[in-house]
Specification:
heterodimer; A: 14 helices; about 35% helix; B: three-stranded antiparallel β-sheet; 14 helices; 12 strands; globular
Chain lengths: ~450, ~525
């Protein structure tokens, strides 16, 4: 077998050193009735590299790849062009096949990268500090709610109706077991619920969670809700599912958010059918000891040279066990690397240009798509994603578009299965990869479907 | 002292202290220093050429950015060089032996990377209509089926993002099952030798954690555990093989006893590599077990993730598992069961654990690995992993104290302690000495049940020659520690950095880069 270097001669010699007659002697502690006496039933025997590759190529061909067709899906995962050098660099074996930097003297590559990543994320979000990544945006969002509970010693969280419904589901799952109370509502086409949230904050509120831009693509000033939270000792958590937006609009931290979390998939990571992604987590410096996850910090070595280590680990499970701030261990290191490389390639100017291009493409798409008879737009404001109101159930429209090999957005009916009004909503994302021709094709097909 | 490395640096050369001669750049030939991106980049440089954005009227709601962000950019050549230089300050499996116990640092086949990057997997969106992603759903379903086969369990939850997330999945399923029965059982029992994630997970889910002691032979004290069982116990979390590298031979007895009082058995499957294809946890009465795809099934560790932690579930817990999941319809098509259509199929689900369907990129890699090995190859994986660990154990038991060597063979990892080192010498010194010898150290100071633990997990992808070299090196370093060789206290001498001041880092945390303060100009 190509992955196993031991020869039969090696095995024999090694058993001799061990003083065992056969390999079975090494499994004597397994109760006899639990030992399998041959290759397990139900699995095929080994396969050649060529055979495996052929099998997967066949399966891959059964999927419509985003890059091959007009593509307009978003809702928390966005298609952006990833420069070729990103994927090349993350495949350097020293990055790819390393692990959590427990031995900092031989992990400075990962550690320096994490320090740079933390700084990039903190600056992008307008926060003081950021951690070394979480699993994804949805789990980062839940961890932020948990952290707000630890900081405020309160258990009531107000979730904006504009928060991604899957993020709400994750929070609901966790809250069910931790005893936190979550106030949630369904979004409405008639406007956001920011005024209701401002009115609802009181002395029992641990945090308010708002998405920016929200699930329907709307952008709203967070200053007033931040001020109201602070007045009552609550924290404002902002969730950013599209970090590219922050190249165009001001950061949540600037507007007073205490914790800003997000999904970093847009930069460097790719769509990957939902994972692995990378959770971004940043906050004000005063809360740093309540943060979940790994933190990388600067220090010096015995010769006084600058170096980096994992730090403040007394928050973490391997030290604190049942008193840890989170149970997270392995996080999303390689995706953080991809994010950081892509961000270094872009730089401030590149990010601003990329954001401007996304916004311009989206604006032009709305202009064309709303010319289709019966189609309206819900948003007053948006970045690269907006909600169309169709005269038919958007689920059906999505499937009919797919039959024409157009991936035309995410139907709100899929995200909110139980709401009569929302099922006319179609969430459409338009990034830099969308061409004028794609928009034309989409608009023409939509018109055909609706007529 | 015996020369280990016959082709390169030799111990007798150590007297020529190269560290004293300095260079203009601070570089040492191939060991290259690298500044931070904030020191070499600037906000006007970019390594990406974009088309000009067409002029449009802004729809940003009046929230246009009006401040600089502070993100430096690099040209493409600078970027490639920056990260290539950083990579060279890292140790990885590709470079050498990486026996980090409990982490299963095995070779990462590059076929898996190739497969995961096929555009039909890499470039598909999680919310695409299901008819456009049948191949992706087929991958998830196939992997799920084989994980169930390999563990002898009833079903599997694929969405957990890593091992600790999988633990949470299992514990939440247990809690949901108890809720459904209307039972409030506040206690989860965890052996002292457990991974830190176990108690952290149970505590997160609202359970009170109670520790169960280990026997002098390094296994769970079954009598103590049985004595603690009662109607307040929700379940136990047991690692098998355990963190001392031993098989918990009485797991079935434990499971039966826990079930008899209405509790559940969670098995931490971090060490599944030792038994894959040879033992099915389902035969031992386990109710839930996470599988680290990044350990047993070779997906890359990536410098700290991404991982993937599917959880196999018993029939009793299956109805409570998370959504979404994939099923196969009678006509052979695959269906993703989520909020929209979960209703009747999965009414008792405890809910969603993550935004989408799990770590697809890890699923393709793990499935490629399982297919490559097949039933015969996986059995050989477990056998070689156990053989390699026992070879290390028996080769070193006369050099370092091996506390459980008398308990019989070990499984996939060999445990040693710091007993017998010279006064003032520690496990840490041995670890740092191994760095100079060109190895990644073993896991140190874990498990907590022995003093100064050193946990060596060689995995099956090491050759006998690689093991022999490591054994020689560890023997040499251990002898130096026993003899009180002072040079070991300041090791590593040859790494990109000497020992780092972790106390300083924690006392004055500097977690982001800040512009150095400019000296105030003299008036």
């Amino acid at each position: 077998m190509r992955y196993l270097p031991l020869t039969d001669q090696d095995r024999k010699a090694m058993l001799g050193v061990i003083g065992a007659n056969s390999i079975d002697d090494l499994f004597v502690d397994v109760p006899e009735e639990a030992r399998l006496d041959g290759p397990i039933a139900g699995l095929p025997m080994h396969a050649s590299e060529m055979a495996v590759e052929r099998h997967f190529a066949g399966l891959a061909r059964q999927n419509l790849a985003a890059g091959d067709h007009p593509f307009f899906l978003g809702a928390g995962a966005y298609k952006h062009h990833v420069p070729a050098s990103v994927d090349h660099l993350i495949q350097r074996g020293e990055f790819l096949t390393a692990y959590t930097p427990y031995q900092p003297e031989i992990a400075q590559g990962t550690l320096q990268m994490l320090f740079e990543f933390q700084t990039q994320v903190a600056r992008l979000f307008g926060c003081d500090v950021a951690n070394a990544s979480m699993y994804d945006g949805s789990t980062a969002c839940w961890e932020a709610i948990g952290m707000a509970g630890r900081v405020t010693k309160r258990k009531k969280a107000l979730l904006s109706s504009g928060l991604h419904p899957h993020y709400v589901s994750v929070a609901r799952t966790m809250a069910r077991f931790t005893g936190d109370t979550l106030d949630t509502a369904l979004p409405s086409f008639d406007g956001t619920d920011i005024e209701q949230l401002i009115a609802a904050v009181d002395g029992e509120t641990s945090c308010v969670v708002v998405q920016y831009p929200d699930i329907l693509g709307r952008i709203e000033d967070l200053s007033a809700i931040a001020a109201k939270c602070h007045e009552h000792g609550a924290l404002l958590i902002a969730v950013v599912t599209e970090p590219v937006a922050l190249g165009a609009i001001r950061s949540p931290g600037e507007m007073g958010a205490d914790i800003v979390v997000g999904e970093g998939q847009s930069l460097g990571v790719g769509l990957q059918f939902g994972g692995p992604y990378v959770g971004l987590f940043a906050c004000k410096e005063k809360f740093v000891r309540q943060m979940p996850g790994r933190l990388c910090g600067e220090t010096v070595d015995a010769e006084g040279k600058r170096g980096f280590v994992l730090t403040l680990s007394t928050r973490e499970q391997h030290i604190r066990r049942e008193k840890a701030t989170s149970n997270i261990c392995t996080n999303s290191g390689l995706c953080a690397l991809a994010f950081s490389i892509h961000m270094s390639l872009l730089g401030e100017r590149g990010l601003r240009d990329l954001a401007a291009l996304n916004h311009a493409n989206a604006v032009r798409a709305t202009e064309r798509l709303t010319q289709v008879p019966g189609v309206g737009i819900v948003n007053e404001s948006f970045f690269n994603e907006f909600t169309l109101k169709l005269p038919v159930n958007a689920r059906e429209a999505v499937h009919k578009l797919a039959e024409r090999k157009i991936l035309g957005g995410v139907s709100l009916g899929r995200l909110y299965p139980d709401d009569g009004q929302l099922e006319y909503g179609l969430l459409v994302a338009v990034t830099e990869v969308v061409t004028d021709e794609d928009i034309e094709t989409f608009a023409d097909a939509l018109q055909e479907i609706l007529s | 002292m015996s020369a280990i490395n016959t082709s390169g640096w030799k111990p007798e050369m150590a007297n020529n202290d190269v560290t004293t001669s300095s260079t203009y750049t601070g570089n040492r030939a191939l060991m290259l220093e690298e500044a931070l991106i904030f020191e070499i980049g600037d906000s006007e440089t970019t390594g990406v050429d974009l088309e000009d954005a067409p002029q449009v009227a802004s729809r940003l709601g009046g929230l246009e950015r009006n401040r600089t962000i502070g993100l430096p950019g690099l040209s493409e050549p600078q970027t490639v060089r920056h990260y290539t230089r950083l990579s060279r300050q890292n140790y990885g499996i590709d470079l050498g032996f990486f026996p980090l116990g409990s982490c299963t640092m095995k070779h990462n086949p590059r076929l898996n990377e190739k497969v995961a990057r096929m555009k039909g997997f890499l470039d598909v969106h999680p919310m695409q209509p299901q008819e456009t992603v049948q191949g992706a759903l087929a991958v998830i379903h196939q992997l799920a089926e084989w994980l169930v086969t390999l563990t002898g369990m009833h079903s599997v939850a694929m969405s957990p993002k890593a091992g600790a997330h999988g633990e949470l999945c299992g514990i939440l399923a247990i809690k949901a099952a108890l809720d459904a029965r209307g039972e409030d059982r506040p206690v989860v029992l965890v052996p002292e030798s457990a991974h830190g994630t176990n108690p952290a997970t149970a505590a997160f889910a609202g359970f009170r954690v109670e520790n169960i002691p280990a026997t002098p032979e390094g296994r769970v004290d079954v009598a103590a555990l049985k004595a603690r069982l009662g109607p307040d116990v929700a379940g136990v979390m047991i690692t098998n093989p355990n963190t001392c590298g031993l098989f918990e031979s009485e797991l079935k007895t434990i499971s039966d006893a826990v079930h008899a009082v209405g509790g559940f058995v969670y098995c931490d499957g971090a060490n599944f590599n030792a038994i894959v294809g040879r033992v099915r946890p389902g035969d031992l009465g386990v109710d839930a077990m996470h599988i680290n795809l990044h350990k047993t099934f070779s997906t890359p560790h990536g410098g700290g993730g991404p991982g993937s932690g599917p959880v196999v579930l018993s029939e009793a817990l299956a109805p409570f598992g998370p959504i979404p999941y994939v099923t196969r319809l009678a006509d052979g098509r695959f269906k993703l069961v989520e909020e929209e259509n979960a209703g009747e199929d999965h009414a008792q689900t405890f809910g969603r654990m993550t935004a989408f369907h799990g770590q697809m990129g890890m699923f393709t890699r793990a499935l490629s690995y399982i297919m490559s090995h097949g039933a015969d190859g996986l059995r050989q994986v477990a056998e070689d992993a156990v053989l390699n660990a026992n070879y290390v154990l028996r080769s070193l038991e006369n050099t370092l104290e091996a506390p459980f060597a008398g308990s019989g063979p070990c499984m996939h990892e060999a445990l040693f302690t710091d007993n017998g080192l010279a006064e003032g010498f520690t496990t840490l010194d041995i670890a740092k000495g191994l760095i100079d010898e060109g190895f990644h150290p073993m896991t140190v100071y874990f498990p907590l049940v022995v003093h100064g633990a050193m946990l060596v997990e060689p995995t099956e992808t090491e050759s006998k020659a690689a093991l022999d070299q490591f054994i020689g090196a560890l023997r040499s370093v251990a002898e130096r520690a026993k003899a009180g060789d002072a040079s070991l206290k300041s090791a590593p001498h040859f790494a990109p950095r000497r020992r780092l001041d972790e106390t300083l880092a924690a006392r004055k945390p500097q977690l982001v880069w800040k512009e150095p303060e400019l000296p105030v100009a003299a008036e």
